Amino acid sequence: MFFFQFRETEVAEPDLEAVCRRYGLTEAEVDPRFGVVATDSRDRLYTILVTAEAASRLGKQLTPGATAADPAVGIFANPEVEPLADAEAPDPKLPGGNPFTC
Predict the structure, then answer these.
(1) Is 72 helix (H, G, I), strand (E, B) or coil?
(2) Where are the domains of the chain?
(3) Bridge partner residues of 47 (DSSP)
(4) 59: how many CB neighbours lie within 10 A of its CB?
(5) 28-36: long-range contacts at Cβ-Cβ below 8 A with a sequence spacing of 24 or more?
(6) What angle do CA 51, 42, 46 make, to 5 degrees?
(7) Which of 19-33, 54-68, 70-84 is modeled with the greatest confidence?
(8) Residue 37 — very low, low, confident or very high, per pLDDT cuts 50/70/90?
(9) How far apart (Å, rounded) are the C-alpha atoms in residues 100 and 18?
(10) Which end of the chain has fewer beta carbons closer than 10 Å to its terminal beta carbon, N or C?
(11) Alpha helices (H) along the chain
(12) How do strand 2-7 and strand 37-40 relate by DSSP bridges?
């Protein structure tokens, strides 16, 4: 999945259904659990998660030069983040043996 960040100019708080209609996305191309997140509501920036195929299509739909004029708008990577350590495995170098407790 990729982040698609856009500026909303038509409604105060967009819902996922409206965003899908506006950008021609299907239900299968978005993550409904993520929904529409207000990245910066004062600046009217919102983000949704889309599939790789949808990200490719949306990237082609963006007005040429739009991302140069507005670098906050566009497709952004969403790399998987994995824990640095196993929360259950004790680390003898740390006080208490666990990096997730104080």
Answers:
(1) coil
(2) 2-76
(3) 5, 37
(4) 13
(5) 29/53, 29/54, 30/54, 31/1
(6) 5
(7) 19-33
(8) very high
(9) 41
(10) C
(11) 16-23, 52-61, 66-69
(12) unpaired
Q: What is each CA distance from 6 to 1, 3, 53, 102, in whole angstroms?
A: 16, 10, 17, 40
Q: Is 62 exposed, middle or buried (0-12, 13-18, 19+ CB in 10 A)?
A: middle
Q: Does the predicted TM-score (pTM) go above 0.85?
A: no
Give the length of the chain: 102
Q: Tell me the percentage of the chain whose pLDDT exceeds 70.
A: 75
| Residue 62: pLDDT band with limits 50, 70, 90 | confident
Nearest to 86 by CA among 98, 69, 74: 98
